[in-house]
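Methods — Computational structure assignment.
A single polypeptide chain was analysed. Its primary sequence is given first, followed by the predicted tertiary structure written as C-alpha cells.
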Amino acid sequence: MTPRDHWSVTRKPTVSLLSLHAPCQSWCSLYALTSVSSSLSQWAFAALLYIKYIDVPSLRWTTLKGTEGIDTMEINNTAHILGPAYLAVEYVDSMLPRNPFQEPLRGAWDYMLNNYTKFQIATWGSLLVHEVIYFLFCLPGFIFQFIPFMQKYKIQQDKPETWERQWKCFKMLMFSHFCIQLPMICGTYYFTEFFSIPYDWDSMPRWPYLLGQCFGCAVIEDTWHYFLHRIFHHKRLYKYIHKVHHEFTSPFGMQAEYAHPLETVILGTGFFIGIMIFCNHVMLLWAWVAFRLLETIDVHSGYDIPLNPLHLIPFYAGTRFHDFHHMNFVGNYASTFTWWDKLFGTDWQYNRYQSKQEEKKTQ
C-alpha cells in the first residue's frame, strides 16, 4: 500500500484508529501491549483484528456496532497487507478432505437447538463441557502413576502422587467448580444475549477461525495471568491467596484449578477478556474452554511427554517450564507462553537450572 492510499469512509473522508469505537480502541491497546513481546504476537493480533472486523472477500469493513457516522469502510484500489494470510488459510482449508463427522455433528447441534432453550445450552451446556473436558484431560496423567514405564517422563520423580493429596484436591475442585465457577457460568446466557451472540449452525465460524480466535484469547489471557500472578507472589499477598495453589510442590493434572476462591475469580477473569473481544458464536466459548483446560492441565501434569503436539505452538511454555515454578516458587509466571518471562527476565533461575541439568547429563 502506497503512502497516499488510505481508508475511505462513506460519510467521513478519513478515519483514524482513535476514532473507532471502544472495543476497537481496546484492540489497539492490546496490540501495542503485546507488540513488545514478539513479532509473532504482533502478527497474531493484527490478523485477528482483521478477521474480526473485515469481510475479506469483498475487501469491505463491516459496520462497527455502536459507531456513529460510519456505515462501511473499504480499501482503495489495493488489497490489505493481511489479505494473503486470509487467502492462505482458505487455500489450506480447501485442500483438506471433507470432514466425515460434519453432518452427524450438524444433526446433533440442530437437535440441541430444537430441544433446549438458549439458557439451558449456555448454562448447563457450558458446565457439562467444562466438567467432561477437565476430567477427561486429567485422566491420562492419573493413569500414568500406575504405569512404571511412564515414570521416566515424570519431572519430579522423588515426589510421587498420593491418594491423600488427590482426594483433597478433588474435594476442593468440587467446591470450586460448583460454588465459585458455576455462578459465573450462569452469566453466560446473559452475555450472549447482550452481545447478540448466535447459536445456530450456519453462522458457526469455520475451524481455522476458531483456532485463530483461541490463539488470540490465549495471548490475552497469558498477559493478564503473567502480571496478576506475579502480583500474587508479592510477599505481602502470597500467604493469603496464592499459597493455596502452591500447596503441592509437585503438581499433577487435577491440581490445575486447585486455588483460593479469590484467585479463581481474579485470574479467571483473564479467560473472559478474550471472549468479550473475539466471541461471534457460542461455539467459541466451548472451543476456548477446551483449549485453555488442555493447556493448563498439560503444564500441571508433572509429566514431560515426548512428541507433545502442544509444543508445536510457537513460544509454548510447556510442562517443565511451569513445573519449575511449583518447585521453585519464584519465576516463570506466565500461563501459556514464554515471552513475558523472557522480556522481564523472570525466567533466569529456570534457565540456570536447565543449564545445570544439561551439564549433569554430559558428565
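Note: Residues 118-144 form the longest helix (27 residues).
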